[in-house]
Amino acid sequence: MSVFQGLKFSAVSSPIHRLDPRVKFLFVSILFVATILFSDLLPLLVLFFVQIPVLIVAKVQREWLKTLRGALMLSVIIFASNLLANYFYSDRILTTETLELSLAMTVRFIALITTFSVFFLTTSPDKLSLALEKARVPYELNFAFITAIRFVPVLADEAQTIMDAQKSRGLELEKGNFIQRIRNYLPILLPLIINSIRRSLELAEAMESRAFGAMKKRSNLYELRVTKSDYFVLILSLVILFLVLYIRFFIPIPRYLFPFSRIL
Amino acid sequence: MHSHLYVEGTLGIIEIKGLTYSYPGSEQPVLREVNLSIDRGEFVLLTGPSGCGKTTLCRCLNGLIPHFYNGKLDGEIKIVGLSVQDTPTSKLAQHVGLIFQNPDNQIFALTVEKDIAFGLENLDYSREEMIKTIDWALKVTGIESLRNRAPHELSGGQKQRLAIASILAMKPEVIVLDEPTSFLDPVGAENILQIIDRLNKELDMTIMMIEHRLDLLAPYLDRIIILDEGRILHDGPPREIFAFEESKLVGIGVPVVTKLEYRLREAGIDLGETVLNAPEFVKALRTRLIQKRENSSPSAPFYRGVLEEDKVPEGEAAIEAKDLHFSYPNGVRALNGVSLRVMPGEFLAIMGENGAGKTTLVKHFNGLLRPNHGEVYLDGKNIAGMSVASLARKVGLVFQNPDDQLFSESVDEEIAFALRNFGFDKAVIEERIAWVLELLGLTRYRKASPFTLSGGERKRVALASVLAWDPEVLVLDEPTIGQDYAQKGRLKNFLKQLRDRGKTLIIVTHDVEFVAECKPRIILMAKGQITADGSAEKVLTELGSLKQASVNPPEIAKVFLQLSEFGLPRSIINVEDAYDLLTKRLGRNGD
């Protein structure tokens, strides 16, 4: 169940983790916009590399690498499809420019994934929910969001146990044709769904027992406090935004590092 | 703060008069004419056979019934003077805290402290107040060091302590616990009981608890209430209750030492007052043995328990594990060089605390898990490369929670599932279904939906669905969990029948009293290794290795380990053997 590994948030503390989620959101949004604005290899590489120190300060480089490994297949597909499309489009001529363009698209994809990682790997769902609360998202939705994250590891364990139990009763998941294979998953899905319904009832009982919805207004153990480093990141983000726009629209950057030369 | 009429001393903290309740859509009342008054500071056990209405009564105490469940409620329930019918659950929750069986389903937040805060946030406490209360609740439950951990990083016992801390933070006067230890290992369970006792003694909280494990609990209790078919059958202090013969009849797990004392009394050996735990029994028995020694002429030491030497089993093992090593993908090392031979027809119990590697080990027997290093042999054949399906045909594995496998519309379909997977003929399938339903006493549920059955019945259906293909080896993971006294008795008989049919049986269990009664060969596991292996009499009386594996000795063993000065054998572990020995030793011949 390694797919869920990334969702198991563990409390690590770093200057990046401690940033106000709203400021951090602004920061990554600007990086995001910048990555979309540029389509040339050089600026995209710059955008990719500037994020690496951030990941290292946040001590999440290992999780980030795991995510990248997960995205490897997709990156290869992006690279290959760009390359092939350009190759056939330009009458079967492979040039350094085609190569660079395909590479640029791939780097853009990886840079975007990295931007997402910076945010989601360093922002605890609790803080995120707090930010949502400040944005006046109704508490019920917020609670549902937190509960969903809370039960990912529980459900993953349960799915594994159910799968083991049914395999022990001779269920072979890979047996049969396509339709048969889908049917094979019923003995796993049904107990999972029924258990979830049962669980939700128990959860509701436990919520009632903890005075859920007792008052119109509810308090929060955590609070968002804007610190000096938040102001710093805020200003930095705006500077980056300004730079990005300036470079994009007023400075001619070389479109290609190695202009036209034919390879094939 | 509370502006209602509740004057200390005039009324119980819980007052129930003529309570009758039936769930919506059901004519049959689950509670009938219940009258109950509980005083502040009492520690009350609520017990009775499964389905007797215990959980329903608990739900009435904080208003889940009638506010959440609706249904038909007659009579009067008052908690600290508040009428439950007229007070919303969110308000009652500040007076009565409910703690449930499954700790996972009552933890909402992503960190320990935030979960403790959940109730307080709902009540709009200020941050300062919350932090103060959280500090206190963490301290009382002894989980200060876990403050910033995520729930999925906690053990079962830690999760249950968190659940208690979270309820505690709301500072209720009454805490109601519905089988809080049934998901925990014995050490985790004892820890929880100690915390609850502290809440009762030091914080003067009123405790109402549902529990089957009376051996551990008996010394703490002020009062026992036995429910049967929705009525209160008995209500009184433990000594008084356990003295009733009837209490046995409704399937109450009377502490084993109490049972022994009771049987001795029937045989004319009176040890005085009803005993509740091993130390009391030792005291009573010691007095009696000293009297006896003084009265009778010195005689040769009575007899010593004869323990057969460990025989190295010969012949081909049903299952053999050689130096198994296994780590989970997340890096947890679960097995660290386990070697084991289980002979055909043998009965083996695997014990040890949660996380010791017991379940991991048995999952290697049918190929669900494959070792990183080492081999497993089934009937002498290395199973590497064989499919789970082909191995499962020979090794039937019954999981702990039946709900992790039941999915069919009817009981017979559920049983047919595996038979079809293994390619049995239609006629054979019919035959096997009829046979296994009869064997487990489920015939009348043949066409019923498994989901309408009780927990104990579902457990039997899960067992039936595996037993149906008649595997040579049967592995049961925690077969006694959630089973009441009577169900355990039936299970014991059933296992004996299987043994008589020559089946190889392996059980993974925490239930030391159950094991002491069945007397299988036992292996103890700790930290992914086998730390002891031998007969039940031998393993369950070696305190050192028991402690290492976090297993408590059986109550009867606790008694006899302290009486060796009288020449009594140390290897007596269950009521039956103790009774035989003591009637011979203390019986008529000397008096």
Keywords:
heterodimer, A: about 260 residues, mainly alpha, 2 domains, 10 helices, flat, B: about 600 residues, alpha/beta, Rossmann fold, six-stranded mixed sheet, 23 helices, about 35% helix, globular
CATH homology superfamily of the domain at 345-371 and 386-554 in chain B? P-loop containing nucleotide triphosphate hydrolases
Distance between the amino and carboxyl termini of chain A? 44 Å
CATH class of the domain at 345-371 and 386-554 in chain B: Alpha Beta
- Order of helices and strands of chain A, N to C? HHHHHHHHHH
> Low-confidence spans of chain A: pLDDT under 50, at least 5 residues?
1-7
**How much beta of chain B, percentage-wise?**
15-25%
What's the number of helices of chain B?
23
Helix and strand topology:
The complex is a heterodimer of chains A (264) and B (591).
Chain A: H1 15-18, H2 21-37, H3 41-57, H4 61-89, H5 96-122, H6 125-134, H7 139-167, H8 178-184, H9 186-208, H10 228-250
Chain B: E1 14-22, E2 31-38, E3 43-47, H1 54-61, H2 64-68, E4 72-79, E5 82-83, H3 89-92, E6 96-99, H4 112-122, H5 127-141, H6 156-168, E7 174-178, H7 186-201, E8 206-210, H8 214-217, E9 223-228, E10 231-236, H9 238-243, H10 246-249, H11 256-266, H12 278-295, E11 319-327, E12 333-342, E13 347-351, H13 358-365, E14 373-378, E15 381-382, H14 388-392, E16 395-398, H15 411-421, H16 426-439, H17 455-467, E17 473-477, H18 485-500, E18 504-508, H19 512-518, E19 521-526, E20 529-535, H20 536-539, H21 543-548, H22 555-560, H23 575-586
Parallel strand pairs in B: 3-8, 3-9, 6-7, 7-8, 13-18, 13-19, 16-17, 17-18
Antiparallel strand pairs in B: 1-2, 1-4, 4-5, 9-10, 11-12, 11-14, 14-15, 19-20
3D structure, described in words:
- The complex is a heterodimer of chains A (264) and B (591).
- Chain A is mainly α.
- Chain A is built from ten helices and no strands.
- The termini of chain B are far apart.
- Among the domains of chain B are: 257-300 and 557-590, no CATH class; 345-371 and 386-554, P-loop containing nucleotide triphosphate hydrolases (Rossmann fold).
- Mean pLDDT of chain B is 90; it is low at 1-5 and 300-308.
- With 591 residues, chain B is of the alpha/beta class.
- The interface between A and B is large, with 57 and 76 residues.
